[in-house]
Amino acid sequence: MISVLIPIYNYCVVDLVREIHKQLIDNDLTFEILCLEDGSNKAFVKKNLAINYLSNTSLIVSELNNGRIKSRKNLCDRAKYDWLLFLDADVMPKSNRFILNYLECKYEKYDVVYGGFIYHNTPPEQQFTLRWKYGRTHEEVDAKIRNTEPYKVVISANFLVRKSIYTSISSEINFDTYGTDIVLGSLLKEHSVKVFHINNEVYHLGLEDNLSYLHKKEQAADILIELIKNKKVKHENSLLSLFMVLKRYGLHYLFMMFFKIFRSSMKRNLIGKKPIMPILQLYRISYMCNAYIKTKS
Fold first, then answer.
1. Which of 163, 181, 208 is the last residue of a domain?
2. Any residues with CB less than 8 A from the CB of 246 and at least 6 apart, and which?
3. CB-based contact 1:84 (threshold 8 Å)
4. CA 210, chain centre distance (Å)
């Protein structure tokens, strides 16, 4: 028995829901699919109403935009079954065995199972290349590698979790911006939750433009700073580890100066036609050093 939960904001989920529904039916599962419109405009709501004609499937409409975390908590509260499959609205399973792959991994032995993320090989239009390049470089990680550090690459766009675990862990998440997967990973590690990774990817379809994604990476760095301030630094995040080394030796002041001098030139590259990944990483760590020092002043 499984509850498939999909928060939506201005995205058409009809194809995704039909595919998931077909696979659930084909595997003769007891299931429900709950989708929550989180303040989407009326055009998207109208399109997505088509899923109500599928068995055991419901579209819940909220006129307020409460954010993804509150939407997930809302869906969790409504779910009938003990296992929750969370999917983002802008994904599509890579395999027609997507549901079966979760079933065959003996998920009952674990508390959380992450399926993974993948991107199409064909580059998108130039204004979306930053998100695409970052995803292919840092998010397309084989399950064998992910399982060596199980709390590091936790992408909540595609994961199966016990309802009791998600209810407990999500109550401690107080952020609702991009980067909350970092907080989730830290909490899973802090509570010694049994996490397992498999190669059961979904394609990420809804790419943000370069400027919007750069802003999201800044938000993620701000969340890391909050983790440090609150002494919740159990996450295996590489950027966090690098920052802690720089801070230990006082080198974060040098990176702060670097950020102030080169911010504009780095940003021009990252929002331009050919963003370079090492520059993004340099931007992120120097932004984090600058933001951390500002919080202390």
1. 208
2. 252, 255, 285, 289
3. no
4. 17
- Do 225 and 286 lie in one domain? The reply is yes
- Check whether residue 30 and residue 80 sit in a common domain: yes
pLDDT confidence of residue 233: 58
In the chain, which residues have pLDDT < 70? 176, 231-236, 297
Crossing angle for the helix pair 277-296 and 252-270, to the nearest 10 degrees: 130
Same domain, 180 and 231: no
Nearest residue to 256 via CA among 218, 291, 282: 291
The closest of 36, 32, 30 to 13, measured between CA atoms, is: 36
Q: Please indicate, yes or no, whether residues 278 and 179 belong to a single structural domain of this protein.
A: no
Long-range contact pairs involving 205-209 (C-beta distance under 8 Å, separation at least 24): 205/90, 205/91, 205/92, 206/11, 206/88, 206/89, 206/90, 207/124, 207/128, 207/131, 207/132, 208/128, 208/131, 209/127, 209/128
Burial track 9-19 (b if 16+ CB lie within 10 A, e otherwise): bbbbbeebbee
| Cα distance between residue 262 and residue 102, in whole Å | 46
Q: Which of 156, 175, 208 is the last residue of a domain?
A: 208
Domain check: are 127 and 218 in the same one? no
66-77: per-residue pLDDT in tens?
A: 888 899 999 999
In this structure, how many other beta carbons lie within 10 angstroms of the beta carbon of residue 164?
Answer: 10
Q: Say yes or no: 16 and 101 in one domain.
A: yes
Q: How far is CA 231 from the centre of its chain?
A: 23
The number of domains in the chain is: 2
Q: Look up the pTM and report it.
A: 0.94
Answer yes or no: do 135 and 263 share one domain.
no
Summarize pLDDT for 231-280 with one digit per residue, the tens.
Answer: 665 656 788 889 999 999 999 999 999 999 999 999 999 999 999 999 99
Determine the structural domain holding residue 239 and report its residue range. 212-296
